[in-house]
Amino acid sequence: MNDIEMAKIRRESGETKRRGGLSVFRLKVIGAVFMALSVAGMTLVPALFGTPSADNMTALTVAVVCEIVSWCAVPIYSWLVYNGWKHTRNRMQYAGRLFVVAMLAGPSYDRIMTGRWFDAHTHNPVWGLFFAYVVLVAIDWIARHYAGFVRWLMTVALIVAGVLWNVMLQIGVSQRVMYTGVLALAFVLVFYFLGGHENTMMFTAGLLGAVMCITPGVGVAFLHYRRDELGYRQAWAKWVFYALYPAMLLAGALAV
């Protein structure tokens, strides 16, 4: 078997290490920019243009555009969760970090969305990533301990439970049309089940994103240019990204 054939096999199996492209650090920066647009659409836009409504089409248009564009972040963060699961040394600690971020973001998110610092009827999108991670860990555990019909029955039951958690808890519901928690779970499952087939994985994820209001498909395009490197210049930089979303929401909540 020659080098060209070997390279083709590695490429099809997703084993090729990309030397150029977007590192994990750069993907997080891009995701943070889209995330900031969502917060700005809910807080900064009303402050600058007035309350978005049918009587104020300028504010309404800017707010909706900010929110729709921010959905590009969903596949990016879903990939980061999947990639974190694949490479972390301690999966319980990784789940704990997601849980803490979701808890910290909760009060500010509720304040922005409902005007109250606590509202059980809505939950921030980080909970969607947390539940997706829990489902991912559970599915992988089942795959290693069961086989055949029992494995797939338990897997389907877990996926259905994950969808129901997101729907009933109203996780990351945006504009009443986008369930970002459900979509994050769907992306994570695509990455998990098709992770060994790069082209099929990217095509499926892109199709899923395009069906879900187009912009998540644009987010998948960024993932196509990723490379398998962290890209951090400082070890503490990763902790900044954990604090970034709660900090953005807190600033927005105090401004409204």
Automatic annotation (TrEMBL):
Q: Which residues cross the membrane?
A: 27-49, 61-82, 126-143, 149-169, 176-195, 201-223, 235-255
Q: Which UniProt keywords apply?
A: Membrane, Transmembrane, Transmembrane helix
Superkingdom of this protein's organism? Bacteria
Keyword Transmembrane found: yes
Q: What is this protein called?
A: ABC transporter permease
- Origin species, per record, is Bifidobacterium ramosum
